[in-house]
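Build the 3D complex.
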Amino acid sequence: MNLKISALEFIEEVKTGNITVEEFTAKTIERINQIDDKLHAFLSVNDNALDQARNIDKKIKSGEKVGDCFGMPISIKDNMCIKDTKTTCASKMLENFVAPYDATVISKLKKQDAIFIGKVNMDEFAMGLTTEFSAFGPSKNPWNIEHVPGGSSGGSAVSVSSYECIASLGSDTGGSVRNPASFCSTVGYKPTYGLISRYGLISYANSIEQIGPLTRTVKDTAFMLNLIAGVDPNDNTTVNNNNEDYLKNIDSGIEGKKIGIITETIGDGIDPEVMTATKEAISKLEGLGAICEEVSLEMVKYSVAAYYTITATEAGSNLARYDNLRYGYEMPVEGYEFNSYISKARKNFGPEVTRRMIIGGFVPSAGHAGKYFLKAMKVKSKLTKEINEAFKKFDLLIAPTVPILPFKIGEKIDDPVSLFLVDINTVTANLTGKPAISIPFKIVNGLPIGIQLMANSMNDKMLLQAAHALEKTVTLPEIPI
Amino acid sequence: MVTVEEIEHVSKLMKIDVDDHSEYLEKVQTMISYFDILDSAGVESEEISMPEIPIEQLRNDEYIPFDEKLIEKMNHYKGTYVRAPKM
Amino acid sequence: MTKIGLEIHCQLTNLESKLFCSCKANYREFEPNENICPVCAGMPGSLPRLNQEAVKKATMIAMALNCSTPEKIAFFRKNYFYPDLPKNFQITQLNIYGDTSVGGSGTISVGDKKIRITRIQLEEDPGRLIYEGSSSKNQITLVDYNRAGTPLVEIVTEPDFETPKEVRDFLNILSDLLKNLGVADPSLEGAMRADANVSTRGGNKVEIKNIGSFHDLEKAAHFEITRQESLHDRDIPIAQETRHWDDRRKITVSSRSKEEDMDYRYFLEGDIPWVKINPEIRTELKSEMPESISSKKERYVTKYNIPEQVADVLSSDKYYSDMFEKSHTESNAKEVANIITTELMGLEDTREKREASKLTATHLRDLADSIQTGKVSRNSSKNALHEILKTGKSVSQIISDLDLGNVSDESELLKIIDKIISDESEAVEQAKSNPQTINYLVGKVMQATKGKADPTSTLNLLKKQIGI
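Done.
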């Protein structure tokens, strides 16, 4: 049985009876058992997956209506709540937390008969770019297991690219879906802010993050988007997309579209291989009829500093509820007084999270807010103005997803600023709320390079059309695992 | 420049016991120094913007009880309370 | 010169649901932690869902207090750790990026003084803490989140009050105003709380928190003023600090928690967009607002000739002014108002009595008419009222059942009068020389008729018969 098929191919195979959901699920679990010891994408695997698969097969056989997913195995980043399932955010702080409700995206996919094959690894509380900050050990890049898979949705990207599942849901705060997608050679999507409900996503930086799918093809992403996008009364920040069909007319192409090459992303600090790949992508796009021209977004220079200031502030607040009184891990309150208890309990945060909390307490504090937090918010506003100006002239913006090739595990873990700067091409989309996608473009020396496209707010459909057009021009080698 | 005292003060504010403050000091100092770049962004006159929602789209005032006994899924004491350490 | 400012927290108890979720706004009837959901219990991944009606009611309160109301309102996070705070931050409102709270500056009259309102903000109430255990060693803190997320309106005033009495008068006016608007029931336990700040003789401002009731507020203000004055007299400077009201010892005590060191790291609440309240909505709200107390009072005085004292009492009470509107006619308005304020309010002086009462608008109208047409005397009407509350029978039924009908038939009355005159010859002689003393004889007639004689007719007939 071939696991190396896309979501749409899988659905077709099941519909035509070529495979059963049970067979495919069993094969998937076998694959996970085979390779996940090496890769460590999964934090937990669903024990009931086979039973669920059998039920769906029964429904199909009896002619009952089956959800659009037809039992497709999907992995879920461990910061989204699945009812009665452990949801740890890869943190010791939430070691024993069992979610009492389903996230909106989970209920929507449940209704469509998706099978959640397992919860996957991430940087603790989504703070990181390499999945090295997981409290339960890092994940490895399946293209070269000595290298990082990217983060914070590392487990998502690893599980999809190594055929441990067909698709995954991750979350993207500063590039956390696109960056691992690029490092592992999958498609990674961050929608317009508000397109997908965050209800049930454990917050890190709530004013800029979004849930996003990681898939093998752009069409698969459009398919997922159709199932999970839309306004949600449980999330006041969601926007109405008028039930847009993202798959329809996805083959429209990009003839005549104007694409801006962001100057600040092809200058200093870019690996030569990444530069070459970017130039190739631009040629391909011109070959498809697009018009490409450089455009400068001055604020990109300050975007990383602004991003980390804002996210640290929001994280400091969003993580305040983890006082271990209502949920968390085992630590009785006897013998403690309030302040000493929670200060001790919160020692269970890992070092990176602790650092971000300290920064998050510092930069918005009374004496420092003007210099740091307020300035960062103003950079965010000015960057948004700049990119809106750019979108008056251009339909899309292009950049390499990450300026460098996937690096070795442990290489940047002690150099915080160097690590921050890995995000420089991706944080703009989060700070401005614009949709962005990373598509796998090239493998160089066995390591993946992804290309990122951005569109204006609510132009997700057009963005997917452009990404699909570029994807069609790409052929990639097989993953060596 | 951030001092060890400031880090101690902030970790108290954030209610996290940090065993050795100087261990964090170096990395935190580096990170915060990087943020100094914001001073040269020239954004003093910018306004802070936020998304908007018209009042008509807000939730209707209806009592809908949660469909489960949530307290049973939290750490509870004597059946229905959450226990906190003494104040 | 004494300056007192207030921060009043009022729960919007008339709403159905909490500020950010659909749990019940009035938590009082539930067992501990029975009225919670992932949002108000601060579960991971939960998000706030703003209550539309709460925004409208808060805007109405702002309008009633003559405050400016902005076109867009925003919410902020106030970050601090406390076991009654499920998220360890409170979603509240601030005005640091322009006017973004639900009400800006306004005024309210207290007597002939104008008190300035600084701002009005919408925010969530925390949960409740219960302490068990006798000593500090075995003390257990228990948390009940039923109240967490209840909608609160915070009303902040300028330090315009000069005496504790002004504070009390203001609180009564505010209570009546809120009841009149139909947004809250201030009599519910814990529905209205207040903090005060007090400064004297130009000295530092002292904040007083933890005041449990309005009654205590007046006491606390009074105590604090006295405490400060005595320090002034001894040339000791007043420390700028926060003190809490110790209800047991009835004193203010310096708070060991250094509120001044608290850094709340305020920033915009990213889960709630700015809410646009366009001019059409505001106009609609204004027109939906119930008539204000002062407007009612004016109407009672000018239209129905109701005496000012009576109009004052009636207009301030929503329950009875509503009843007045339903029961009066053009001709008997003054009488209805009189019955309500002099008799009915006294008989129905508790919520239980009001709820148990069988009185309806028809009763009031009929009773007032009966008094005006002389069918029953004012004295007898008191007995009738008792019966109505108890039995709900019609006014005419009760008058006949209890034989309360006025004896106004002249011939009948004359018979009784003539008998009294013959029985009380001494008193009659006295009355001839000192007409004031005729009241004794009037009293005798009333006795003989069991109060049913019309006093005016009785007096006139007596005078005629005696010849004075």
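The mean pLDDT of chain A is 96.
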